[in-house]
Amino acid sequence: MTTSSETGCAPGTVITGKWHHSQYVVERLLGSGANGSVYLVRRRGQEQRYALKMGYDTLELQSEINVLKALNRQFTKPYFIEADDAMEAGLEAAFYVMRYVEGVQLRQFIRVRGREWLGLIGLKLLERLSSLHRLGYVFGDLKPENVLVSPYGSVELIDFGGVSAEGKSVKQFTEWYDRGYWNAGSRTGDEAYDLFSFAVMCIHLLDEKSLREASAQLPQVRGVHDLEAVVRKCPHIKPYAAWLSRALRGGFANSREAMNAWKRGVYARPLPTIKRTPRWLRRSFVLSLLLMGAALYLFLAT
Ligand SMILES: Nc1ncnc2c1ncn2[C@@H]1O[C@H](COP(=O)(O)OP(=O)(O)OP(=O)(O)O)[C@@H](O)[C@H]1O
Q1: Which of the residues in the chain have pLDDT under 50?
Q2: What is the CB < 6 Å shell around ligand 1?
Q3: Which terminus of the chain is less hemmed in, N or C, by CB atoms within 10 Å?
């Protein structure tokens, strides 16, 4: 059977739920991954935007829905809206609708706004992880692509496809951020697993080149010591070093303790309040200096 997730939904496509009869108008594709395609949609006749995920595997979608529903119970602003089957001109696919998270991927945010934002972003992300852990879940596939940051620095996790119940095997992981890859522990989902990924993610954001070099070690000798060597070597990482080493060694009792340690030891530094001057403004400034110089030269020469 051909599903609409295989063929893709063009902007303007109306997706109608078979059971609840809600209608969603596709604005654009937000992204596609292993588990399906995510579209930015509006409910027909309304302004409110949502993210609609159309999946290849109903069981996978269901486990993501379960996590979002659990999060709904903890927060006033809902994560999960509804789930249904789409029936579009003979094409059939399961979908669910969730909160649309406006923002850019974490790596892009840090690249544009500067590394000094990691203190604040890290704290908000640890809060998110801690909420998930309190519900008995482990995120599993924590990586910069799964963290969206709004222009004001609010942080949301996306892609709950890797989430597993605490104590169960991690369902999805990405090599660099995986504790098993660094021979640093099992792939059993526990709070320390997410904190380990969080620590490697910070190293990645602060010194990607050194992390890449460290990961080039032979698999059987690769270890936490390689990550700690990067942490010691890189000057940008210094303010985070103590926290990162502890997370890499599984030294926090839980994510709440890790969050409090981050708040005291990392975030306690002054906040970045001044926006970096946009590049176009810097360029215009340099250009005007050059023009002034040229005008002065012509003036003196005549
Ligand atoms: N709630 C959301 N709000 C905004 N954008 C989203 C949302 N959920 C997903 N996206 C976008 O859609 C893309 C694909 O979504 P998602 O990662 O959930 O799919 P996936 O099939 O599980 O992917 P992967 O193969 O990475 O596991 C994301 O990279 C992100 O850009």
Answers
A1: 1-5, 271-274
A2: 30-31, 33-36, 38, 51, 98-101, 145, 158-159, 161
A3: C
Question: For the chain, which residues make up each domain, given as ranges?
Answer: 14-99, 104-267
Q: How far, in Å, from the CA of 141 to the mean position of ligand 1?
A: 12
Interface predicted TM-score of the whole assembly (ipTM), two decimals: 0.93
Token pair of 262 as six digits: 């981050």
pLDDT, position 3: 42
Q: What is the pTM of this model?
A: 0.84
DSSP codes of every residue in 112-163: HH-GGGHHHHHHHHHHHHHHHHHTTEE-----GGGEEE-TT--EEE--GGG-
Q: Ligand 1 mean position to 7 CA, how many Å?
A: 17
Q: How far is CA 170 from CA 41, 177, 252, in A?
A: 31, 12, 19
14-99 domain in CATH 3.40.50.620? Answer: no
Q: Is residue 141 among the annotated active site residues? A: yes
- Kindly give the pairing relationship between strand 49-55 and strand 91-99: antiparallel
Catalytic residue, chosen from 84, 141, 190, 226, is 141
Kindly report, residue by residue over 12-46, the tens digit of the pLDDT. Answer: 999 999 999 999 999 999 999 888 899 999 999 99
Per the annotation, binding residues for ATP are 53
Distance, CA 30 to ligand 1 centroid (Å)? Answer: 7
pLDDT at 155: 96
Whose C-alpha lies nearest to ligand 1, atom 16? 159
Q: For 83-123, what is each residue's pLDDT tens digit?
A: 999 976 566 789 999 999 999 999 999 999 999 999 999 99
Homologous superfamily in CATH for domain 104-267 = Transferase(Phosphotransferase) domain 1 (1.10.510.10)
